[in-house]
Amino acid sequence: MFEFPQFSDIQRRAIYFALALALSVGAIFFSLAHGNAAATPTPTLSPLPMYSLPPLPPALVVVDVAGKVKHPGIYKLPQGSRAVDAIKAAGGQLRGVSLTDINLAEILTDGQQIIVGAPPISSTSSKSKQAGASKGKITSGTININTATVAQFEQLPGIGAVMAARIFAYRTAHGAFATIDDLTKVSGMGKSKFANLKNFVRI
What we know:
Elements: H1 9-39, E1 60-67, E2 73-78, H2 83-89, E3 113-116, H3 127-134, E4 143-144, H4 150-153, H5 161-174, H6 191-197, E5 201-202
Parallel strand pairs: 1-3, 4-5
Antiparallel strand pairs: 1-2
């Protein structure tokens, strides 16, 4: 049977001291390890910054404002602007100038020209031409069908208020006429009617 060795009092004290020292050192290491773990902050994930694309610049149309305005010239306006906006950009009409011959609500198209206070087309002084002028129709000269107003279209031979409005509306919807023959594309513009007025129009 195994028997434990017999230790002297000095040996037992040394063993007790060694055990006590080992326990003290272990307690110190445990405290240090626990303190470091508590002091270490838990990493947190921060949300990524949100970036938005810069807004696109608005589409522009370039128009020519001429005639009796304070500052005639070329102006760039946002797409969807109307004739009244172009006139305001040019400083407005001069004092005493009427805008009744201009459709102020017309939506502008790129390259369009707006003439404010355009003089009416005059006729000659011969008797036959005076008779034509009395009916409001021109007998000489030409008008630009890409800048003419409804009132000016009515001065063309064989063109009444309804047809003048149709020509103006067609130009507004489809843009400037490429040739005078494009007038035949307007509803109600027959060959005979076009033949009567083609010598009085131009691009």
